[in-house]
Write a structure and sequence with these properties.
The structure holds 2 protein chains of 2 kinds. Helix content of chain A is about 65%, strand content about 5%. Chain A has helices at about 1-10, 15-50, 80-115, 120-130, 135-150, 180-210, 215-235, 260-285, 290-300, 305-335, 335-340, 345-355, 360-390; strands at about 160, 165, 170-175, 175-180, 240-245, 245-250, 250-255, 255-260. In chain A, the strands form 3 sheets. A 4-stranded antiparallel β-sheet of chain A has the order 1-2-3-8. Chain A has a two-stranded antiparallel ribbon with strand order 4-5. A two-stranded antiparallel ribbon of chain A has the order 6-7. The mean pLDDT of chain A is about 85. Chain B starts with 16 loop residues before the first helix and ends in a 5-residue tail after the last helix. Chain B is globular, with a radius of gyration of 26 Å. Chain B is mainly alpha-helical. Helix content of chain B is about 75%, strand content about 0%. The longest helix of chain B is centred in the last third of the chain and has 30 residues, at about 365-395. The mean pLDDT of chain B is about 85. Chain B is built from 18 helices and no strands. The chains are: A alpha+beta, B mainly alpha. Chains A and B meet through helix 2, helix 4, helix 5, helix 10 and helix 12 of A and helix 2, helix 10, helix 11, helix 12 and helix 16 of B.
Chain lengths: ~400, ~400
């Protein structure tokens, strides 16, 4: 007994795993720090040779370049920082439109891929295989140069029903202009939101009390829509005046003109990402075992109820994690805007960096911004995933 | 009453065109409408595509610049070196198919006949000759592989390991201007050659890094785990294009002033660093799929941590994720197109220069459709072949 204790005590430290572990980590940190400081020193001397010291003060300088599409007040005399914000908002707008549209389109594709209709099924399969094996960059460039810039000139515009003008200067769509009664209408919409909240919570309380499963989402959205429509009808002067685009000489005016860059980027990203989302949706639905559907039918649920109450909630658990990564891909891929000339975050940062020569600062800023985007998206989707997750023991 | 000898199947199981149509296309009213709409869409697409491909499109731009698309500005009198390198790879491919894929005839025939199929394109006489040689070399390799013993398979594996160094050595050359293989600078590499090299180098070098990161992420040592997680999440959180820009603009700053690396090498570093983070997550998935009993059994046998990983866990985990690795390879292949944005002349970069020639202004559709076709055929081909081989070889099953 005593001997074994003694033996334990005399294990040389270079064979003691606990000490070795700590030692190894310390060495690892030292090597890492050494490399980092080496890189930092090299960078500092390299930058000093170019006469640059690391700082972000240059952001308050005057940008001096134009940006074709902005949501903010922006002009040539604005600062670099304002230009950066413009890019940020443009990236956000492309991402939000892209995420919503590609989800809708992707779900349609995924369901079509499972359709019993041979033709629809094959058509969806063909689309998925076609898109998933293309390079996104090539697809985007083709979509921009080969489709949107090859649309007819403004004078020979193709006009789709609903006053949609397709030209090589962009796509013109009718756009609502607010009139005098618009503030009242906004108030009515607010009331609609409150009403639909009331409906939502009372239906949920009803469901918890009785165990019934009312169509909560449907009634909630119907409440809002009905309030909006009624408000629209009772107001003597319509709150929005819809203006169609008109062709004036070589340009379009009125309505809203979406630039070919924006259209190519957004629709290209949507077409590309939805193919991947379609595959995610398909595998999610397939993951729900057939026995579940049969059991639901045996319990007397009809097909719609089976889909809504049995298949969909279970498929969603499988769908959400890969769907999150597709959303993240879409947001990151929106940086390819630089290939089609849409002034997004990355494009504008690149312009700033070309003008000022501040490569380190700009690249670190852009990377940090995208990291934050990714982080926010994953946090939100993880929260949603937690909510719909199977509650286990 | 006479008893019929032939027993007909129940009505519901009889087959026939009409029955098939009713079941698959006109099951209900909604189905019928969808079918008609779908048929119309297909008709429209086929008609438009047919008219464009055969009457409108001017394919002259592709035919004239085919060499540019394949190898970029690589000097014409040195192209034979690339053919030799390709022949070496073709030989290894035939050999491997003969040894390991004896039952997958379709994949074998497809791979070996692929060069001959390419002669249908307007390549010119010299390349056509080489393409036929490639197939012949492949078939010879296959024949040797069929009759080979165990020993040969080891030689083939060694051959694969040295194939990339040989390929790069032949591409780059080693002797001065007047020697047998003068050095061709990376600035002259382009087209599909550059895309291919970026992909292969990126995948091969990111593999060990990715495995290390995956192991680091599962390590019990907090510092190493933290460092791995930070690296993986950082790289996966930013777009690839920012990594490329960082490599082009900041990598030269990070290195000591007496070391310079050229632009192609920088892009290769970027692909490697980027792909390693994604690979690490894939490998981690494979590691997680290994049951705990395997670790315990290895420990019970007296293996230490390193030995357990190397002899027991990694071989199983990597075997599990081979299909995913093929997917990763395809993804990297598609992503390398981004190097065109930082000014390299890969397929997309070449497309830009071709379209800038005054003779071929306004032919964007033809050029980009052609490039898309290359990407599509190679990506689809790779995934299809890997699926075929997986089924035949039982790869991915334990």
């Amino acid at each position: 007994m005593q001997e074994s204790a003694k033996q334990k005590a005399t294990i040389p430290f270079w064979r003691d795993e606990r000490i070795l572990n700590i030692l190894g980590q310390v060495v690892f940190i030292i090597v890492l720090l050494f490399l980092a400081s080496l890189i930092y020193q090299n960078m500092k001397t390299g930058l000093a040779k170019q006469g640059i010291t690391l700082s972000y003060n240059f952001l308050s300088g005057i940008a001096g370049f134009d940006i074709s599409e902005t949501f903010l007040e922006y002009s040539r005399t604005s600062s670099y920082w304002q230009a950066y914000q413009v890019g940020l908002l443009n990236t956000l707008s492309v991402s939000i439109v892209g995420v919503i549209a590609s989800t809708i389109f992707g779900v349609i594709l995924g369901v079509s891929r499972l359709s019993t209709n041979f033709l629809i099924n094959r058509l969806a399969a063909f689309y998925l295989e076609l898109i998933r094996n293309l390079s996104l960059l090539v697809f985007l460039i083709f979509w921009y140069l080969g489709v949107f810039l090859k649309l007819p000139r403004v004078r020979e515009a193709v006009i789709w029903p609903g006053d949609i003008f397709l030209t090589n200067r962009g796509v013109g769509i009718p756009w609502g202009l607010p009139t005098d009664s618009y503030p009242t209408f906004r108030l009515i919409l607010l009331i609609g939101i409150i009403l639909s909240f009331i409906v939502f919570f009372s239906l949920r309380a009803y469901s918890n009390r009785t165990g019934q499963a009312p169509l909560t989402t449907l009634w909630t959205s119907l409440t809002f829509i009905i309030t909006g429509v009624v408000g629209w009808l009772i107001l003597p002067e319509k709150p929005l005046f819809f203006e169609s685009p008109v062709i004036e000489g070589l340009n379009m005016s009125g309505g809203k003109v979406l630039s070919p860059e924006f259209m190519a980027l957004t629709s290209g990203l949507v077409l590309y990402t939805s193919a991947f989302i379609g595959e995610v949706v398909r595998s999610g639905i397939l993951s729900v075992s057939k026995g579940q559907v049969e059991a639901a039918h045996a319990l007397g649920l009809n097909s719609f109820q089976t889909l809504r109450l049995i298949v969909f909630p279970q498929a969603l658990r499988v769908i959400v994690p890969p769907l999150t990564s597709q959303y993240l891909n879409l947001i990151k891929n929106s940086s390819l805007a630089i290939a089609v000339g849409y002034p997004d975050l990355f494009y504008i940062s690149n312009t700033i960096q070309n003008q000022t020569g501040r490569a380190v600062e700009m690249i670190s800023m852009v990377m940090l911004t995208y990291l934050i985007f990714s982080l926010i998206t994953s946090v939100f989707m993880n929260w949603y995933n937690q909510r719909i997750k199977l509650v286990e023991r | 009453m006479t008893q019929s000898n032939t027993i007909l199947p129940p009505l519901t199981e009889r087959s026939g065109v009409i029955r098939w149509l009713r079941k698959n296309l006109f099951g209900s009213w909604l189905d019928a409408i969808l079918t008609i709409v779908g048929a119309f869409i297909i008709y429209w697409i086929v008609k438009e595509l047919w008219t464009w491909v055969f009457t409108v499109a001017e394919w002259q731009v592709v035919a004239t610049n085919l060499r540019l698309f394949m190898v970029g500005q690589y000097p014409l009198e040195q192209v034979w070196r690339l053919w030799i390198a390709l022949a070496f790879i073709m030989f290894l491919t035939g050999n491997s198919l003969g040894i390991w894929a004896r039952k997958s005839y379709f994949a074998t025939i497809l791979l070996l006949a692929f060069p001959v199929l390419l002669t249908l394109f307007p390549f010119g006489d010299e390349p056509r000759k080489w393409l036929i040689i490639l197939t012949i070399v492949g078939v010879i390799g296959w024949g040797i592989g069929r009759t080979a013993s165990e020993k040969l398979s080891r030689i083939v594996i060694i051959g694969w390991i040295i194939s990339l160094p040989i390929f790069i050595l032949l591409t780059r050359g080693f002797s001065p201007e007047d020697g047998i293989m003068p050095i061709v600078g990376t600035n002259l590499w382009g087209g599909l050659l550059l895309t291919f090299l970026l992909t292969v180098v990126g995948i091969i070098f990111s593999f060990p890094l990715g495995v290390l990161l995956a192991l680091g992420r599962r390590s019990e040592l907090p510092v190493i785990r933290l460092a791995s997680v930070l690296y993986i999440e950082l790289v996966r959180g930013v777009p690839l294009i920012t990594v490329f820009f960082m490599a082009q603009l900041m990598l030269p700053l990070f290195l000591p002033p007496n070391i310079t690396i050229d632009r192609v090498l920088r892009a290769m570093v970027a692909v490697t660093l980027f792909s390693a983070a994604y690979l690490a997550e894939n490998v981690r998935g494979g590691l997680q799929a290994i049951p705990k009993g395997q670790f315990e059994a290895a420990h019970a046998l007296g293996l230490n941590g390193l030995q357990t990983m190397y002899f027991i866990i990694l071989p199983q985990a990597l075997r599990l994720i081979i299909p995913i690795l093929v997917g990763q390879f395809i993804a990297v292949f598609k992503d390398t197109a981004l190097v065109a944005i930082v000014g390299l002349f890969d397929l997309v970069g070449i497309a830009k220069t071709v379209l800038a020639q005054p003779d071929f202004l306004g032919l964007q559709r033809e050029v980009y459709v052609f490039i898309s076709l290359i990407y599509w055929v190679l990506s689809y081909g790779m995934s299809y072949l890997s699926q075929q081989l997986e089924v035949k070889l039982g790869v991915g099953k334990r």
